[in-house]
Amino acid sequence: GLLAEARPQGVLVSSDSNPEEVGLVAAAASLHIPTVFVSHAYTTPVSPPLDFALSILEGEAAVAAHARKGPVRGSVFLSGVAGPSRPMDASRLRRSEPVIGIFAPKVVVWSGLRAIIEDCRERFHAREIVIRWHPSSLGKPRLAALLEDVSGIVETPASATLLEVAERCDWVIADSGSNVNLEVLKLGIPTVAVRELGTLDEGQVDQYGFVGNGVLFPPVTTVRDLSVEDAVGFYSTGWAARFRRYDASYLRDGEAVSNGLASAIRAILEGRLPARTDVALV
Questions:
Q1: Contact 146/115 with Cβ under 8 angstroms?
Q2: Which of 189, 140, 198 minimizes the C-alpha distance to 164?
Q3: Residue 63: enclosing H or E segment and its boundaries?
Q4: How confident is the model at residue 281 (pLDDT cuts 50, 70, 90)?
Q5: Using CA atoms, how far apart are residues 108 and 114, in angstroms rounded to an integer?
Q6: What is the number of helices (H) and of strands (E) in the chain?
Q7: For residues 260 and 26, what is the distance between their CA atoms, to the nearest angstrom?
Q8: Three-state SS at 233
């Protein structure tokens, strides 16, 4: 097949469970071609044990999650979550008339979204509400049909990056089972998880362990239930150390991380299988 003809030095995939990528990895293994896995999301109930020459993961929490599926084979490099990182500014939650972001999940509970918007307006007197629809939304956004008053609400275009949208916001509302929390928190912007925004059942509310491992403030049922001072305290005390379990690169030198990753990949492609390699503390 293609691999036999091309004989690449290595094969890289971003899923350990999609049929196409599982097939590609199996074909590479049969030809003794090194395989590299780069994580783009946390493990799910259908994720198999990791079995790659090199697995590029976000942090210790990801290693532990994969290890619960079975032995982690091959080398591991902790590269962290992509993007710039900044110290957490929990005081953003105290701002009057804030700009509040709503980062919608793939499947939206429309009545819940309406209630969240009303609470943002009535309790927090939001100056602006910025909505980022999920890139893979199931169902077309129907805000105009949901609300009589859409003033002060901005729907960002699909072309806008998460960084561009997040930086418009004082703080962000997201689904508790969404990786978007990590990307926003890495920017030093607090996130608040609201149960009524998505369709996760009780067993899935903390499917990635963000709450249990202390990097996401416990989900509230409605925005009006949010205790601002409790959330500020949560994101202020010892939070950076907790967050590093999920993002090994948090507040560390990006060039050092990139160089370390490049060295780990070169070692794999050259047949030198390194031991477990973590991001150096810098």
A1: no
A2: 189
A3: helix 60-67
A4: very low
A5: 10
A6: 10, 9
A7: 27
A8: helix
